[in-house]
Automatic annotation (TrEMBL):
Top-level taxon in the UniProt lineage: Bacteria
Annotated compartments: Endomembrane system
Domain DUF1232: 32-68
Keywords for this protein: Membrane, Transmembrane, Transmembrane helix
Keyword Transmembrane (UniProt): yes
InterPro entries given in the database record: DUF1232 (IPR010652)
Main location: membrane
Membrane topology field: Multi-pass membrane protein
Organism in which the protein naturally occurs: Aminobacter niigataensis
Name of the molecule in the record: Uncharacterized membrane protein YkvA (DUF1232 family)
Residue stretches spanning the membrane: 30-50, 56-78, 99-121
Membrane is among the record's keywords: yes
């Protein structure tokens, strides 16, 4: 069972890189490129939207949200193209990093902090 989980994780990492490649390819349909860019940016971001130290929810994105996003985007890409992207991704040794994903996560956290601050200040004034 442990070997199956390791294999699944390796395939998931390969598919994230394949989506990164799909998002950059003009042969991918535009709607799949947009979706692939969003999923790859988030999956390749150096930080998570929900940090892993948050009990249960911290691993939710790693175990459910990212794989579900990958699965949905793969269904949008024609199978022959996806097979090509997977083959190219398997040849890449270094996992790319996503500054767009990092910017998105930081923006969401800053917006959440601003909203929380506004809510607290509103409560203090009343």
């Amino acid at each position: 069972m442990l070997e199956a989980a390791k294999r699944w994780a390796r395939l998931l990492k390969r598919d994230v890189v394949a989506l990164y490649l799909a998002a950059r390819s003009r042969s991918t349909p535009w709607y799949a490129r947009v979706a692939a860019a969003c999923v790859a940016a988030y999956a390749l971001s150096p930080i998570d939207l929900i940090p892993d130290f948050v009990p249960i929810l911290g691993y939710l994105d790693d175990l459910l949200i990212v794989p579900l996003g990958i699965w949905l985007v793969i269904r949008m890409i024609p199978p022959e193209l996806m097979a090509d992207f997977r083959a190219k991704a398997a040849e890449i040794n270094a996992k790319p990093r996503s500054l767009a994903g990092l910017a998105f996560v930081v923006t969401v956290w800053l917006a959440a902090l601003a909203l929380a601050g506004w809510w607290v200040m509103r409560g203090i004034r009343q």
